[in-house]
Amino acid sequence: MKFKKGDSVKVVIGKDKGKTAKIEKILPKINKILVAGVNQYKRHLKARAQGQSSEIVTITKPMSSQNIALICPHCKLQTRIGFSIVKNDKIRVCRKCEKKI
Ligand SMILES: [Zn+2]
């Protein structure tokens, strides 16, 4: 997984295309990413017990990493993530400004 929690990303595909937000959670098992405030759906919860009112809750669904692009914290551009090896450590770099992300 190229992305990390806390990364700023831009949605490039789907109903929230163009939005920018931060990654809230990485779900490596299903290869999806939860982005704060993006890919939200409203779900109507019916009252289960008497006296309880039904309510509408907003849930955020995780999305595919292919639907988002990283915003580089240095050059503020939408970029792709590259990797480079520094002192045997694999670090992420911005393909545009080549700074460490
Ligand atoms: Zn950059």
Summarize the structure.
The chain is an all-beta fold and 101 residues long. The protein is built from no helices and 10 strands. A 6-stranded antiparallel sheet has the order 6-3-2-1-7-8, with no helix packed on it. It has a two-stranded antiparallel sheet with strand order 4-5.
Explain this structure:
With 101 residues, the chain is mostly beta strands. Helices cover 0% and strands 48% of the residues. It contains no helices and ten strands. It has strands at residues 8-11, 20-27, 32-35, 40-45, 55-60, 63-64, 68-71, 78-79, 81-86, 89-94. The strands form three sheets. A six-stranded antiparallel sheet has the order 6-3-2-1-7-8, with no helix packed on it. A two-stranded antiparallel sheet has the order 4-5. The protein is elongated. It starts with 7 loop residues before the first strand and ends in a 7-residue tail after the last strand. Bound molecules: zinc ion.
Task: Give the helices and strands, then pairings.
Blueprint: E1 8-11, E2 20-27, E3 32-35, E4 40-45, E5 55-60, E6 63-64, E7 68-71, E8 78-79, E9 81-86, E10 89-94
Antiparallel strand pairs: 1-2, 1-7, 2-3, 3-6, 4-5, 7-8, 9-10
Bound molecules: zinc ion.
Write the H/E string, N to C: EEEEEEEEEE
| DSSP E strands, number | 10
Mean pLDDT over the residues: 93
- Shape verdict: elongated
Assembly context of the chains:
single chain
Chemical compounds bound to the protein: zinc ion
Low-confidence stretches: none
**Tally of DSSP helical segments:** 0
Strand line-up across the major sheet: 6-3-2-1-7-8
Percentage of β-strand residues = over 45%
**How many strands, which pairing sense, and closed or not: the largest β-sheet?**
6 strands, antiparallel
Radius of gyration: 18 Å
What is the rounded distance between the termini?
14 Å
What structural class do helix, strand and pairing data support? mainly beta
- Fraction of residues in helix: under 10%
